[in-house]
Amino acid sequence: MKPVRKAVFPVAGLGTRFLPATKAFAKEMLPIVDRPLIQYAVDEAREAGIEQMIFVTGRGKSALDDYFDIAYELETTMRARGKSLEPLAATRLPPGALASVRQQEPLGLGHAVWCARDFVGDEPFAVILPDDLMVGTPGCLRQMVDAYERVGGNIICVQEVPREKTASYGIVTPGALDGALTEVRGLVEKPRPEEAPSTLAVVGRYILQPEIMRVLDNPTTGAGGEIQLTDAMAAMIGTQPFHGLTVDAVRYDCGDKAGFITANIALALARDDIGPSVRAFLADLD
Ligand code: G1P
Question: Which of 126, 125, 100 is nearest to 205 (CA)?
């Protein structure tokens, strides 16, 4: 079984739900407390043993590449002022660990992943959607890699959602249960509640076999008129093992304003430095 060494980060989205904040910069740079969303995603990947980060970007997203580069002027000035460079440590990746490719048109998540095909090559790979902030110990992708090392094949992160929310997610037709693993018998993107095969939803973490790129070579248009990753995965079921893993982690949907604010509050409360003052403020609210 080949190890999972590469992760694809689809970060070409326009971030229209956060306008005007995202008019001139990448939504993945929005901070949860003092770290941008992309930092959490990259940290989770590194904890899971990922060596190669592949960003699928778009126009106006150069801040994402700059963020993981060396900021000479900033560092020189900080050093001259005797300031610690420790807050920048997490932004420093090993040389060559980050590659970027552009998705020229927003044709869907399946198309975004396919844009990374030559970087992925003939290896299993992870996909991380930074909007889905997953907080767990060990991290969400680490838990998935551990499961992958046991059963191989394709593994998607799954969580139960309220039935009225199925039209926001990929939804699983579940098969046999094996602890936290559910056999995936079918997948459908954004079904209406009355048509959803279950309420087990795909969350933004995937471990996929490279053959999915061959499915995406001949894409079909799916939900919302987009090339859906869910449809390509559905076409793989039956040819390779396919499991959903219910991870032990809390998900914050940071593509949504309420989820984004909730994540900020939850992670602020967990901090030793600002937690007490945020807690005191919340306690004073009616
Ligand atoms: C994407 C996927 C969907 C998945 C969701 C998780 O949808 O297409 O299958 O359930 O991410 O966040 P999006 O949120 O980009 O519409």
Answer: 126
Per-residue CA distances from 249 to 132, 146, 246 (Å): 11, 15, 9
132 CA closest ligand 1 atom index: 12
Distance 161 CA to ligand 1 centre (A): 13
* Amino acid type, 57: T
Q: Kindly list the domain boundaries of the chain, sorted by start residue.
A: 6-255
Mark residue 245 as left, alpha or beta (left: phi above 0; alpha: psi -120 to 50; beta: remaining): beta
List the structure tokens of 227: 């090339």
- Å from CA of 129 to ligand 1 middle: 8
| 189 touches ligand 1 (CB under 6 Å) | yes
Q: What is the pLDDT of residues 183-220, one digit of tens each?
A: 999 999 999 999 999 999 999 999 999 999 999 999 89
The superfamily in CATH containing domain 6-255 is Spore Coat Polysaccharide Biosynthesis Protein SpsA; Chain A (3.90.550.10)
Task: Give me the half-sphere count of Cα atoms (radius 13 Å) on the Cβ side of residue 242.
Answer: 21
44 lines ligand 1 (CB under 6 A): no
Question: What is the atom index within ligand 1 of the atom nearest the CA of 230?
Answer: 9
